[in-house]
Design a protein that fits this description.
Belongs to the SusD family. It comes from Plebeiibacterium marinum. It is built from 25 helices and 12 strands. With 683 residues, the chain is mainly α. Strands 1-3 form a two-stranded antiparallel sheet. Strands 2-8 form a two-stranded antiparallel ribbon. It has a two-stranded antiparallel ribbon with strand order 4-7. Among the domains are: 71-82 and 361-516 and 625-652, no CATH class; 233-359 and 518-621, no CATH class.
Length: 683
Amino acid sequence: MINKIKIFSILSILAGIFGSCGDYLDSDEYFKDRVTDEKIFSSKLYSEEWLAHTYSFLKNECADVSSKGYTPHCFADDMYYGDRDIEYDNKETNSLSYNQFHMGSYDENTKQDTWTQCYKGIRNASIFIKNIDINEDLDAEGIADYKAQARFVRAYYYWLLLRKYGPIPLLPDEGIDYTDSYEDIALPRNSYEECAAYISSEMVLAARDLKTYRDEQSIGRPTRGAALATRAMVLLYAASPLANGNTDGYAQQLTDDEGRLLLSTEYNEEKWAKAAAAAKDVIELGVYDLYVASYRTAGTSSFPATITPPENAEFSNKDWPEGWANIDPFESYRAVFNGTVSASDNPELIFTRGNNGGETPDAMVAHQLPRIASGWNTHGLTQKQCDAYYMNDGTDCPGKDKEIGRGDGSERVTGYVTAYDAYYGNYKPLAKGVSLQYANREPRFYASVAYNGSVWHLENESEEVNREQQVFYYRGDKDGNGYTNTMFWLRTGIGVMKFVHPRDTYENGDINNVVDKTEPAIRYADVLLMYAEALNELSGSYSIQSWDGSQTYAISRDVNEMAKGIKPVRIRAGVPDYSADVYSDQDLFRKKLKRERQIELMGEGKRYYDLRRWKDAPVEESIQIYGCNVLMTSGEKDLFHTPVAAFALQSTFSEKMWFWPIKHEELRRNERLTQNPGWTYYN
């Protein structure tokens, strides 16, 4: 019989190192009568409650796609929030304005629930894994699945910690002897490589017993694909410049308590091959595909007929997946995020936390919606992100990045959609009065960008007059930026349409008026892009075993394999695949790949971490943020559409911003824990 006192004593010790005093017995809420450990884990009901509680920490700060209240990391140089400029003091409320976040002026006690939540989840999962085998109500298959779920979620918590804080302490799987001295219990940080290797190995173990599919009632539980996809992400990060061959000053300062470097200074190309093989493992499952919507010959304003991309000799007359002849690229992309497609019907959804509470994508939308829909009208896009989207023929928009010194010499398009144009549909889906800068863009642009003069459909508004609204962001426009003396205005005059369903409204402040959305924590498009990225970094050939050892992959920079990764993402989006010249040029392909991730994964919590792992953050996050001139009225529309520096949004990057600081309280509790460079040890 396992000693119950020892189990909870271990919990108590670990809480002293990694959690808040007095709250280490969170699982005990299910066991108020202090039943024995044998009764807990031999009972199916109690075991399921314990496992459910282990999952419960995957919320709030542990989410990817969320409003800024818990997850500012969803905002980087692409997307911003503007409703916490002045009203909040982060030291007192733990709130954080975009400028505080983007300027690194937060402190060591800001947004630290991730650390606490993840280590609580790790503790609960470890106890579950150690004890579930004694269960008397579950068969061997059920026990194996439950144990694999716990193993997955434990490794996933480590992944969230590694991504945010960098190298972190790995707790021994067998637990800690509570009779040891505090000095013996204190744990140092493991290296990035050690953390990645551990998570990778645990995900392989989990994948062996996880189910391939989950029914709708269990959609938030991991599958084999979820474990393998997380493993691919971890290995990709470990192969990236921040953690692979990093010899800069920051890497020299990031050490454990004995001075051991925690980021690898020696470059190892094989890490990219392992990341590519891990992504291929997911592809080879044959379970996932990109979601596509059928071509529509007719429709409504909310669900319009398909806008066919320009004629392309290679792709226009071929059906999916070789072309876009029979699909609607706009709806194919839009429906993945806005609640049109349920989680169980979405073939590209690999892992979601489900609806665990806190600020979900639904809350994101409440902040994106215009004032006419009672939305906060504060989540917006930067001009850089707006320019990143291609034209509908795959070329760059005229004037792209001109203001930030990266232009090609072209000028932005002038003029506006006329009543004649709108009547004859010359610039679909643009309505009358919209700048032609936004004409003829790729479908993902229209599914993601709430440009000046966008039409919001708002089918659930109680007043019929409010249901079909064209919203302009000129100064003084009551439905757009008419509230510049309050928080409810877009700082760049460019909003966010991604995640918004035509039936969404925030009328009466009721979040139930927003169509429920599934958080896309991991989706297949990301895996495909990871595969292409990892292959591009190779100069040699490698033989890498598949996750289960059933086959050996020959991994090299094979352009046909790279196309298997990136081509479907672009074809689904209605833009042509890259030319042979792009595929043959490693540097050019890398640049294109980064842009593809910026577009495809916008608003999904990836950009902030991508910029860091690529070591691009010092440049990209220091560039001045530009947008429309929001001080201009509708009578000065030419000036409004001439991009200017966004006076209300600041940008910079300092070395300390590579990783999030560790809370002072945790440093005091664990004498072997070292702080991330640039941050302090004590108040």
